DNA sequence: GCAGATATTGAGAACGTTCACAATATCAAA
DNA sequence: TTTGATATTGTGAACGTTCTCAATATCTGC
């Protein structure tokens, strides 16, 4: 009803529309007195600029869109696995957007759909966002990046991998994290360490494995080939890998899982086999979503700074006068090794 | 760049803007031939209506906003507790929105802020959403409902409680769920059953407690006053309540927790005390977020249909030619008692 | 005190849609 | 046929901003 527009403010303050607009947008060339006068009128009337009109008139839409892979997200959620990752991303980015009057919209995209690019085009045309946040694995998808470049939409890539340097990139040092996890186990005295890789199409999977290998080599500890299990991030994959490792003649005394789901699977299988964690088997997982901290025992884990990364991505897109820039170095955020009860020295 | 507008389509098809608009919006009074011709032009040019312009011209914004309480959400998330609830809500509602070309925006509101209503006004003025989804405890806040009524914004309330019948309401039968949980324990042979209530400002807390009392009374089982612990949904509250219950002369043989966090707290405390779940203590929780299913033992729980509720809320707002309607009965969605390993007959 | 630069304000068009209504075409009944 | 009703299409204004550019006011340095 009320529908206070810029016109009302202009009339109230006795100035032109343009002047009000300048004040609202912190434009240059406004005297302090004028700014004050207009501000007073704005406060008095409770004026808030209309987003749609802003988009129509100007070049900014005050809208960011996050592209999230639909299938794994919905499937995990339907399977009761939760999608804490999505929540963390949103809760990290939204407050940052808010600070500058932006809004964040979550879009679910089916990476394997033939219509993927059509869908992206539709989103861009319809929403005309000021920026796009790409979550993995979309953040590694060259064809999506090509499309965004072509459409001249700024974008920020979360955990983008290393073979494409375009766009804003926000990551953590997955390799170093794996090194730290491995060293933690080595320091405790473990030498027989199993490693469960994540899904091959995620760059982080490779990086984590590399870190593990490097740390082991560095310590002069040999890795038996059968200790490294290629897998996926899923619970099922964790079950399969755990079974394979437990069936070995000389099973590992410690396992590093590439996801919390995998780790939980290992924990469950261990219990089924009558193995005690941590007495018989030390366990470290990657990501540190809630189920991990509250499991019994609480698991030692690498805490992934998902929210901070999303916040950073939003900040880059909002501040970054972003396009046509030379490729900037990726922004690498700190992670943390949270030591809980699942890692102890191996049994003698 | 490309920026194909309705004008281009009109020219391509050799018709007026208005006709294209009618086809796009499935308007009446268009011949099949014409519809075909315009559709062809739309497909050929890849036209997608611009959301902002639509909002400017017409009365619909194709936008729904979800109001979520900021403090508990952010605090839980910062404490590493996850916000699976938020993710479930979004993943339930977003696909439904998508189906009709709508978008869903998540807004975090601080329920205790003095500026709450100012903030809501700002969101409405700036975004002009076609509907608002209220999550608890906002869904019970009369002043928010008053404001939305006054601004004539349709709204749907999730788990709204029972003392205000305005607006669309979507809920599950919390009372019946508590009855079912209690009966499950009674059927197993438990008589000494503890109950941990949720935060008092949430309507569901009361409803669940009522269900528990009713089921016990129905079975002729007495409830010792000290078995019912007033608390909050949090992990800390669960710890405190568990300690209090375990310290009793004759402690309960089973506990119903009003949230997963509470239940996990009980599980942890039980372990600390050397109590085995389920042998020494049966445990049921409410909500069934992921940490529960993957804990050891996996917990029996009431599965809250959060996603389905959000989907329904979105549907009501999208379809509902919603305002000035007589108060409709609440839409009650089915829940489920998922029996896992944490409930067995009591020790003799 | 004057020319030129620069800072400040204002006016009107433009953005891409839908709305209200006017114009035309088509149809059924007299 | 003719008439009135109805189905189909088109026209111009409106939505609330920002953009471009022009107009004016205010500074500099000589």
From TrEMBL, chains A, B:
Name of the protein: LacI family transcriptional regulator
- The highest taxon in the source lineage is Bacteria
- Segments passing through the bilayer: none
**Keyword list, A-Z:** DNA-binding, Transcription, Transcription regulation
Report whether GTP-binding shows up as a keyword of the record. Answer: no
Example of a GO MF term: DNA-binding transcription factor activity
Domain HTH lacI-type, first and last residues per copy: 4-58
Keyword NAD applies: no
Short name of one Pfam family for this protein?
Answer: LacI
